[in-house]
Specification:
The structure is a homodimer. Chain A is about 35% helix and about 25% strand. By secondary structure, chain A is of the alpha/beta class. Chain A has a single domain, classed as Acetylglutamate kinase-like (Carbamate kinase). Chain A is globular and about 45 Å long. At the A-B interface, helix 4, strand 3, helix 5 and helix 6 of A face helix 4, strand 3, helix 5 and helix 6 of B. Chains A, B: One of its GO terms (molecular function) is isopentenyl phosphate kinase activity.
């Protein structure tokens, strides 16, 4: 089973201060996945500008408040509807799974999540589509559960064969490629390379250090990940077809 | 705790062959509820033309198929997003609860439904908004779970004080008011009046006989219901304010 995480930075205009779709990328990425139609598959997408600016505006992290909760919830759901729309359009049978309907967190981490329904959809050859959402939290009031956290949780719980992070960068660099012209793409990171993580502090692209740290934990359990640039046409598609593309393998 | 069911016939153009919103009604009904702001409250809405024509087109009842399932799922979710949009606009803190994310049916009836998350949202004074949806079924492939069935289930399980069905008719008539000019509105039906149900066979407005039968079962358990015409301006609002309006009380 493959889990593909589509980055919010790919399908939305990440720098926008209000929810703004990158429709061109969204359509292309959905099309690329549907042209290969891998299965069993779980899709997870990030929130991009449908989440982050609103979380910030309502100061949800420092001051969990229900007005902000409800507005974020609305917008990420709206983004999910767009994603499902194009997947359906290009022929994939998808069902959206709303995290805030079925997840309860504790201290910012998934605590209760009955994945039985997801398993049933997969048995029926329907692709569940999850997304970064804001959910109830036992200890905090609410907490933001990122797409990355959902990927990590499902990857382990459902014993995924492979995880693909479709992002807006080619992979993991040894230094921040936006600052350093001599930054080099790391082709492979193994669990025993943990020490190298220190170097990622300079890498500010989408919390890459955090992503790698999570993916290394999965790698230790035998789940391999690949980070690929889905902003580049056909790169995700080629990867899904088993072709060699520029990327970072973790595991 | 009150449960309000907003009929699909009120907020959509029920006779349309494709999904068509009745935006004017939707906005007005949301505004009326938000002007009173009853709490604790659970909202449930029907699918109207966002569900029925698609269920029919894909022949889902006779021939459960995943393509039809996914398309229906998409459209009812879209309707739910509209409903949440206007409730938020008029100041209500709402969270949508997607039935297909948390319900599994058996033979067409709700079998698994963990209402813990709904209780938590209510504790936080957030109004859960559910809707008629298509869900996994243990015995059938999929089954349509109507808003009415959700109302009945939650009414009993969560011990509602009152249920209000906001429909497109004034209440329950002794005969079909569209056929018989002398049809009279029945102001109250008590559980011991069960026998009268026979008369409803002529009443074709939105499966009223089925609704009444379900509501009588709830009445036997002490949950009173009221059927009111939400197409008439301010009638729902007046009812929520405790004023006397034309309606049928069941229980």
């Amino acid at each position: 089973m493959i889990i593909i995480k589509i980055g919010g930075s790919v399908i939305t205009d990440k720098n926008s201060k209000y929810p703004k779709l990158n429709k061109k990328n969204l359509k292309r990425v959905c099309k690329e996945i549907c042209e290969v139609m891998p299965f069993p598959l779980i899709l997870v997408h990030g929130a991009g500008s449908f989440g982050h600016p609103i979380v910030k505006k309502y100061d949800i992290i420092a001051n969990p408040n229900k007005k902000g909760f409800c507005i974020v919830h609305y917008w990420v759901k709206k983004l999910n509807l767009y994603v499902c729309r194009y997947l359906l359009k290009y022929g994939m049978d998808v069902v959206s799974i709303q995290p805030s309907s079925c997840i309860i967190a504790s201290d910012g981490f998934i605590d209760y999540f009955n994945v039985k329904i997801i398993e049933r959809y997969l048995e029926k050859e329907i692709v569940p589509v999850l997304y970064g959402d804001i959910v109830l939290d036992k200890s905090l009031e609410f907490s933001v559960i990122s797409g990355d956290q959902i990927v990590r949780y499902l990857g382990e719980k459902m014993k995924a064969n492979k995880i693909i992070l479709a992002t807006d960068v080619d992979g993991v660099y040894d230094k921040d490629p936006k600052k350093h012209k001599d930054a080099k793409l790391i082709k492979r990171i193994k669990p025993e390379d943990k020490i190298k993580l220190k170097d990622f502090k300079e890498d500010v692209t989408g919390g890459m250090a955090g992503k790698v740290s999570e993916l290394l934990k999965l790698a230790e359990k035998g789940v391999k990940s690949e980070i690929v640039n889905a902003k580049k046409k056909n790169r995700l598609k080629k990867l899904l077809l088993g072709k060699r593309v520029r990327r970072t393998i973790i595991g």
